[in-house]
Amino acid sequence: MEGLPHQIVAGIATGGIYASVALALVMIYQATHHVNFAQGEMATFSTFIALSLIQAGFPYWIAFVLTVVISFALGVAIERLLMRPVQNAPVLTHVGVFIGLLLIVGNATGWVFGYTTKVFPSPFESEGLLFGGLVSGHELGSTVVTLAVLLLVYLFFRHTPLGLAMRAAAYNPVSSRLVGIRVGWMLALGWGLAAAVGAVAGMMVAPVVFLDPTMMLGILLYAFAGALLGGIDNPMGAVIGGFAVGVLENLAGAYVVGTELKLTVALAIIIGVLVVKPSGLFGRVVLSRV
Prior knowledge:
By secondary structure, the protein is mainly α. It has a single domain (4-276), classed as ABC transporter involved in vitamin B12 uptake, BtuC, CATH 1.10.3470. The chain has eleven helices and two strands; from the N terminus they run ααααββααααααα. It starts with a helix and ends in a 14-residue tail after the last helix. Keywords: Amino-acid transport, Cell membrane, Membrane, Transmembrane, Transmembrane helix, Transport. The chain crosses the membrane at residues 6-28, 60-79, 91-114, 134-157, 185-209, 215-232, 239-257, 263-287. InterPro entries: ABC_transp_permease, BCAA_transport_permease. It is found in: Cell membrane.
C-alpha cells in the first residue's frame, strides 16, 4: 500500500479525462435523450487532426486551439446534417444513427490517418515524478487543463445568455421556442461544444495510451460509467462521477483485480448503478403518469 497516494493522484488525473467525456455524453443526452455512442470516435478523429497539425509544423498550443475549433464545427455539422432530419423519428432510428456514426467515424479515422499506433506529444513532459513521486508532469498538466475546461464550460452555462439559452432549449424546447429561442441552433451548438470538450479529452489522454483509431473505446466505457454514477441528466454529477471512476479504477487495478481486468470495474459500476439507483447519485427521478 506504499503507492496508495500516487494511485489516488493518478486516478484523479485519469478521472479528469473521464469527467470531460462524461460531460460531453450528458450534454448530448440532455439534447436528444440518447447516448452518443460515437463520442469516443469523434474525440479520436479530433486527436488525429491535432497530430497532423503538429506534424505540419504548428506549435502544440496553436494546434490545440485549432483542433478545438475544428471539432466544434464538425459537431455542429453532424447535428445539422445527421441528427436534425431524424429529430422526431422513433427511438430505434436515433440508436441506428448513433451506431452508424460510430462505425463511419471510426473507419474514416483509420482510412484517412492509418491504423498504425502513433506517439502523441505531451507539452508537460518533465524528468521523473513531481511532488515527492506523487504525480508526473503530464498527469499534473492534463489535470489542470481538464479542470480549466470544465470550469469554463460551467461558467459558460451559468453566467452567459447563450449558455442559459442552450440549457433552456435542452430542458424545455417547447417553452424555449415560445420565448424566441432558436432551439435547433442551440442543440447544434450543444453538439459542437460536446465535440470540442471530447477533443480536449482525446488530446490529454493520447500521450498516455498512444494514438490509434480505437484509442477511446475503453475510455468511453469509463466515462459512461461516470455519467451513470453521477447522474446521466446532471452535468455536475457526471463530472464528479468521472473523477470517482478514475480513482476507483486505479485503486482496483492496483490492489484488487489487476491491470488486465480494470475494464470490469466500469462494467460493475454500470450494472450496479442501473440495478440499485438508475438515476445516479445526483440525477433526477422522473415520474410519469400512465
